Known about the structure:
By secondary structure, the protein is of the alpha/beta class.
Amino acid sequence: MRLLLVGNYPPDRQNSMLRYQDLLQRELSARGYAVGIVAPKPVFGGIGRRGALAKWLGYLDKYLLFPWHVRTAAKGWDWVHICDHSNAVYLPYLPENRCSITCHDLLAIEAAAGRHPVKDVGRRVGWTGRVQQRWIAKHLLRARRVVCISHSTARSLKALGATGEITVIHNPLSRPFAPRSQAEVARCRAQAGLQPDDAYVLHVGGNLWYKNRAGVLRIFGALRMLPGFADLRLVLAGHPWTAEMRAAARAARLNDDSAAGPVLTWVDPDDRDVEALYTGAELFLFPSLQEGFGWPILEAQSCGTPVATTDRDPMREIAGDAAILFDPADPGRTAEVIAAAWPRLPELRRQGLENAVQYTAAQLMPLYDAFFQAAVSAEPLKGAADHDAA
């Protein structure tokens, strides 16, 4: 099959979407597909520009130039698939009976519609953002064939009034994750500032509001106050600290990012270092308020790391029975739940490894194959529509 993927605008640096696009290209090519990728190019918006000017110039590239380019590029392909729901605005330029789209989450659409409290989002969505998200939602809800990456996303899309056929296919891990050697773990521990015998909790993530990184600090601070946890340390891997995180650390009687304190920071570790950090951690703490999927849960489990995460979908959908679940709105109670479950960490380690095996490309890419083959032949979908890998 000749499959054209519609990708994202490179200057937007939407790394998770680029990982997903690369995953589909790599794995479907390995299954015999002839896969091409077309994406908006930075003509008006140069890669080096920042701020409001770059945003508006990027709009010209994405919404003025690219629609006409993708209309032409789609000719001659058996099927066209848009990899990111935020590009639903391109659907009118594609052949209606030969295209589909992946919906990862409805977070931006819901935030623009005022469905998330401003205190969670961190700021009100501006009028241009509201217009843009309404435009995206209008076309997404009319899409004839949609892949949702979790049942949670599918439910949200149906609740908004989607009229097309929705198929749930969980995300495969974007690459293999596995426990690293003790030598690699020791090297990363030292690089992070940990002592050889330090036990640590790990969080990996960015600073988007729903990642709740301030909540990580509140929960960890409450945990250290409990008997037996005073010497526990926290490693924050990902983006630098925000003002909200510093305030949360002070309120929880933690340092902000001092090397001598209980909280350590590693900004933008590479993939192998992340695996070593997962491998050496006592626990991976993931208190997200919302997610489209939750790749880090599976990354941690694949490295043999017990997971504590939010008792909401899709986190519990993806983690299965192999995680400690809690309410992130109550850090004190969450700390107690984690402390009570601490003796079960070896069991959770084993269960997590078993759960993560279900999310390999070998397990899940056949469902994409079935989806595209059925779409091209216009046969009713079987298997993939009701897939539940959890």
